[in-house]
Specification:
Order of helices and strands: HHEHEHEHEHHHEEHHH
Number of strands: 6
Helix content: 25-40%
Distance between the termini: 57 Å
Radius of gyration: 18 Å
Strand order of the largest sheet: 2-1-3-4-5-6
Structural class: alpha/beta
Shape: globular
Number of helices: 11
Largest sheet: 6 strands, parallel
Length: 290
């Protein structure tokens, strides 16, 4: 084997290991997704939105995530507050179970489009709200911008989203030093390649502005994010954008990239505020107890 190929293997493994921080620990529960989710009112297609919460909420998992594990905390949090909540799997690769979000992101956005249509038909609602974590907090922007999603979505909340890509704490800067590495990453896991700073996908997504008219955007970030780096690149610019840093709300919050989406009750409280701003309450360290 050529020396550069031997060197490429540990680099690829390192990139995957860092990205895998986004993999929820409870992966084994995914096999029971239908029963577990529906029994708690999550992914219940008989749910009808109430006057208080007239729009269904669609949850969009992150890279290496799936429709169950990414939302074991937030989905019950929202259903207990009276929301009709749904989640999808997207970006599947052949022969790779449970770990999704690895396919081309433009194709994943098409899957989201079809899923939102399914939810709107089932619930009878005219619009949905979207909440996504990591890649799931960025990918829907393609749906909104290029696939007609803006007409069907009222609010979009991104939790630790890689809106302007990630350099994985500088690791992606090493790729040019390994001939063939970028081509290998693009061929094997295009969903990862699309998220690297400066990718063709992100260049197209962000050309002409971050947002589209008619959608209210919220970004919730943590300064301890070790996957989407630098963390400030998560923020969006636009007239209907609210960028939130967890540590501005609670300086004691130490959540990193995984925890902010899986279990951070302060982040969850901000999600609820973003979905229903008319009844928003201040988010503080005490919100973790709510």
């Amino acid at each position: 084997m050529l020396p550069w190929k031997r060197a490429l293997r540990p680099l690829a493994a390192l990139l995957l290991a860092v990205a895998a921080v986004a993999v929820p620990a409870a992966t084994a529960t995914a096999s029971a997704s239908g029963t577990a989710a529906t029994s708690s009112g999550w992914n219940d297609y008989s749910c009808k939105p109430s006057a208080a919460h007239p729009r269904p909420v669609v949850l969009v998992h992150g890279t290496f995530g799936n429709s169950v594990d990414n939302w074991l905390g937030l989905a019950p949090y929202l259903t207990s507050r009276g929301y009709c909540v749904y989640s999808l799997d997207y970006g599947q690769l052949p022969g790779v179970p449970l770990f999704h979000g690895l396919g081309p992101i433009d194709k994943s956005a098409g899957q989201l489009s079809a899923f939102v249509d399914k939810v709107l038909t089932a619930t009878g609602a005219g619009e949905a709200d979207l909440v996504g974590h990591s890649q799931g907090g960025m990918m829907p922007r393609y749906y909104l911008k290029f696939l007609g999603g803006a007409a069907k979505v009222h609010a979009f909340v991104g939790i630790a989203p890689d809106n302007h890509g990630t350099d994985l704490d500088g690791l992606t800067n090493l790729l040019p030093f390994f001939p063939g590495a970028e081509d290998l990453l693009d061929a094997a896991t295009p969903g990862l390649a699309d998220q690297i700073v400066g990718s063709d996908f992100l260049t197209r997504l962000n050309a002409g502005g971050d947002t589209v008219p008619g959608v209210r955007y919220t970004v919730i970030a943590t300064k301890y994010d070790e996957v989407v780096t630098p963390w400030r690149t998560q923020y969006l610019s636009g007239s209907d954008v609210r960028n939130v840093l967890l540590q501005d709300l609670c300086p004691l919050d130490l959540s990193e990239h995984l925890a902010i989406g899986l279990s951070d009750r302060i982040a969850f409280h901000e999600v609820a505020n973003a979905l229903d701003p008319a009844h928003a309450t201040p988010t503080t360290c005490a919100s973790a107890l709510g």
